[in-house]
Fold:
Amino acid sequence: MMTFLIFLAPMMLSNILQSLSGTINSIFLAKMIGDKSFAAATQFFPIMFFMMAFVIGLGAGASILIGQAYGKGDQERVRTIAGASLALAITFGVVVALLGGVFAGPLMVALQTPADIIADATLYAQIMMFAMPLFFLYLLATSILRGVGDAVTPLWTLALSTGVSLLLTPLLITGGLGLPPLGVASAAVASTVSLVVAMMWMAWRLLRMKHALAPTPELLARVKLDPKVLKLVMRLGIPTAIQMVFVAVAEIALLWMVNEHGSNATAAYGAINQIIAYVQFPAMSIGITASILGAQAIGAGRQHQLWAITKTALILNTIITGGGVLLVYLLSGPIVTMFIGDPEVIAMTQRFLHIVLWSAVMFGFAVVFSSMMRSSGTVLAPTFIGIFAILAVEVPTAWFLSRSIGIDGIWWAYPAAFCTMFIMQGSFYGLVWRRKTIRVLV
Structure:
């Protein structure tokens, strides 16, 4: 339990800081410019998630292999896997940045973005897509650092990024620093600048620590598209990426349904996404911690510890995620008013939040089971289960219920999907995976 908590604590703080950065920037937009600017920025959330899916999958595959190599004490293998993964993330980010200026506008149109916010939404999307190479590099760097058991460097890096972003956003909104007011683009520009500063600091810290993954000539020489290494990384990462793509597509479909109800409904959707992140990210942190500790245990030949890691993760999800859910229920009114100013929209947002919030605990249980299975290289079954819950449960439920009971039906789709994931992932874990022989992959 103590080992788990030592690794989990900085990761949870990182996720809270990441959520806090987005939350405060959203509050700046909503309070300093208006609800419509917040709704405009909200349009990019599912698009960004869609693009992140590949890098999250890549990071998941790399961290499993790096964790097992690190557990074996094979530092050379750790650097080789890290270098090839970083090269692929940077390449993908450059492609997204080049295409962003061309396709941002059509994407906003395809999402049925309300006419009163489409110009701001397009501008915000273009800036964020331009910054994707750096953002993807950051995502992957933090994943591979955690694979070797370092959750502290990502925490301090994110703390610096968050601080810079929170200082810059209001200045750019009001036209400080001698610049003209940038409006809704302020949050996107501030996020980009903060990432540049944070990544430079991360490189300096790793070099100063003489870290195994510091950007030394030895590591930089391995930052290349190595087909042999990437084949193994992507064999583990592609299923995760595919599942994330389906999650993103489902979010786009649900946002499309929400947008049919106007920009107020869109603002409510954005606020709920911000709020629920605070209870979902801890659940995801617990799952990531379980996966990394599981991979390191497998690499070191300690497969007998896997059930203890799983049980610890389930208990912590009940306590931490469940506690977060209860707190948000108790304070839902004041929390929603941080994002929304219109009393009618506040009431609507609070109603939707109450529908979906409790199911974050079920989501956390499902994440723990799937993460533990992925730590051993078992990725196809958890992926198929996740995709089934999305395609066969979430999207159809949102569609049919929204047509029968109105917009509330869209939000009932989330609990339906999360409960399905929990039941199916837990069943496969207990009935199939625990009976398998677990072997080292590297």
